[in-house]
């Protein structure tokens, strides 16, 4: 994932609420929806986006009171930081496995120019 996409995801209100809530004990989507006041459909969308981005995962499967199996999610992030510099966005994520992920976005780089087509980008990008 690119720095701009990561910072966008990490600054969206529902995404932040979900990630922070999942830094503790694992929770189901229904628990998150109820505790955070997020509509269930929006909560499912955020979970899918965050899981696709590799920021959370299904750590276990539990049973609802009605006997339905549900995923219990946990954040993969221990700490995160978004840094805005002149013409740059930097994202640093300290993951629970001890790894560190860094993402940089240079707004002045040709490949990041709005509307740039693939053939206009330097080779290999």
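-> sequence recovered:
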């Amino acid at each position: 994932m690119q720095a701009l996409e990561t910072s966008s995801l990490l600054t969206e209100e529902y995404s932040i609420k979900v990630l922070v809530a999942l830094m503790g004990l694992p929770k189901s989507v229904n628990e998150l929806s109820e505790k955070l006041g997020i509509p269930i459909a929006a909560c499912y969308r955020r979970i899918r986006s965050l899981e696709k981005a590799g920021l959370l995962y299904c750590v276990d499967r539990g049973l609802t009171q009605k006997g339905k199996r549900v995923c219990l999610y946990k954040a993969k992030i221990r700490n995160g930081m978004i840094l805005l510099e002149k013409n740059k966005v930097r994202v640093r994520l300290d993951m629970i496995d001890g790894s560190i992920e860094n993402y940089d976005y240079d707004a002045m780089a040709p490949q990041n120019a709005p509307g740039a087509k693939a053939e206009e980008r330097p080779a290999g990008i």
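The first helix runs from residue 3 to 11.
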